[in-house]
Design brief:
Elements (H helix, E strand, L loop, with lengths): L1 E7 L4 H4 L14 H9 L7 E4 L3 H11 L5 E2 L16 H4 L3 H8 L12 H22 L3 E6 L1 H11 L16 E6 L1 H5 L3 H4 L11
Parallel strand pairs: 1-4, 2-3, 2-4
Antiparallel strand pairs: 1-5
Helix pairs in contact: 6-7
């Protein structure tokens, strides 16, 4: 059994302005986000893995004191296509955005990744994390990633059908997962989580 803690990065300026900050937007954690991370105490882990994006690498350093986390390219945020860098007010009236809203985002992002493409990439990224944990003998690791990455992974792991956004988390929040690495390596992702995800990841 391997314990994986998924942590959403600290707040950014784009988060403050409610923008679609995805794979194409590499922005740092803002001052408010840094202060929030400083106030929290995250558990010690044996290894820290991260999205390649600066906001996640900063969070790895702030939350876990890891200045050189293992970068997993596949854990980058979703490509939001034409929505990238914009917020609701700026997109209002855009027909592609209106269709996206009417579909509740289920058919992916216009000009960007589909939900299935993003989920497949995210699972591949977590598979690399688990494979490295097995190789190194780690039993507890953290992944500093994105809200979208956590959503994609949790929907695969928990087989969520009714509400894709059920697993949304705030900045600096996340889930603790206990994963059966053998089932995971066999591709039985929805059977690999050993109990209900725990959202208590800091004190």
């Amino acid at each position: 059994m391997i314990e994986i803690i998924l942590v959403r990065h600290g707040k950014t300026k784009g988060n403050q302005e409610k923008r679609f900050s995805g794979k194409r937007t590499d922005e740092p954690v803002c001052q408010e986000g840094l202060e929030m991370l400083e106030e929290r105490t995250y558990e010690e882990v044996e290894a820290v893995y991260t999205s390649p994006m600066i906001r996640c690498r900063q969070t790895a350093c702030m939350a876990y004191g890891e200045e050189q986390p293992v970068v997993i390219e596949e854990l980058a945020e979703c490509d939001f296509g034409i929505l990238e860098g914009k917020n609701h007010g700026e997109l209002s009236g855009n027909p592609e955005y209106e269709l996206f809203l009417n579909e509740n985002g289920r058919n992916g992002f216009p000009g960007g990744e589909s939900i299935s493409e993003f989920a497949e990439r995210s699972v591949k990224g977590l598979s690399r994390v688990i494979a490295d944990c097995v190789k190194q003998g780690y039993k507890k690791a953290a992944c500093t990633v994105h809200g979208g990455t956590i959503l994609a992974l949790m929907n695969v792991l928990m087989k969520e059908q009714d509400n894709y956004y059920k697993w949304s988390v705030g900045n600096g929040d996340g889930f603790r997962l206990r994963i059966d690495e053998k089932k995971w390596q066999e591709g039985r992702y929805d059977e690999a989580v050993m109990d209900c995800p725990d959202h208590r990841i800091y004190s």
